[in-house]
Every structure is written in structure tokens, then in C-alpha cells.
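Z., the sequence and structure:
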Amino acid sequence: MNMAGKEKIIPKWRQEKRRCPVCGASFYPHQVAQKYCCQDCCRYANRHGGRAFGGTPIISDPNKPAIRVFLCKHCGEEVRVTEDNDLRTKFCSQRCENLYWKHSKRAKRGKKETRTFRCRNCGKEVVITDSHDRRSVFCSKACSIEWHTHKKKAKA
């Protein structure tokens, strides 16, 4: 069937030429929110925390106010978030987040973390240095049992 009398309507956003922030190529978008010219550039940007080829940062509008600024927990790079749909809060990229969690157990194994709390039953201050020690309310099992039995008796 011939559609001689009908013109194909092209949306305005498909007619606007865009520039890929990774490689700098000009392209016409296939989707409304398309930022990159191809899947390779999109994948590269996601894996490298928004850094273009050669390590230069992806161009963002410097006049736009930052919603939040933080240091990446893995690489220590300062991240400046300017877009509302950018949900990053701790890591500059998915790659940094994956590396952080992959190696975090090995890195923390040598470090001693200390925490303190007061026993809910006897009031004694407890200092915990072993990361595997999960006590957070009572200094011992005996204090826990004693406190719970007093609590049950008070209800009855």
C-alpha cells in the first residue's frame, strides 16, 4: 500500500544533533535521553566513571550548581554531581564500586576497628576490638539473660 499523501512526522528531539561526551562524535539520537553515540561509548563511560578516552573528564556544564560533591571511596577522586538523575553518592563509577567491595574484606583484615558501648544491664563500658564480635548491647551472655528475666518478671 502506498502512503503517497502522508508525511512521516519526526519528533523534534530526533532532529537535534548531539555530541557524544566520550568520543566527541556528532549523532542523531534514537531515544529521548540518549547521551552517547553508541553502546561502546556508553559502556566505556560507565566503566571508567565518566572519563573519556585518554582520561579526560566527560564535559559537564561548569556553570551548573553541584547537587553534591564527594570523594570516591575507592580511588579518592572528587566527584561533582550536577544532574538530578545521577544517583551516585559514594563511588565515581560502577567499576570503582565493584573493586571496592571485591577487595574490602582483604583490606580490612589487617585493620583493627574499635567500638565502645555501655552494657544495658550492669552499665559496664565494653571496648570491642575484634571485628567478628557482634556484641552491641550486653557485655556478656549472663548479663543478657539476667536483663531479660527481670524484664519478663516486671511484665507479669
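The first strand starts at residue 18 and ends at 19. Confidence is low (pLDDT under 50) at residues 52-57.

Let me know what you think.
H.
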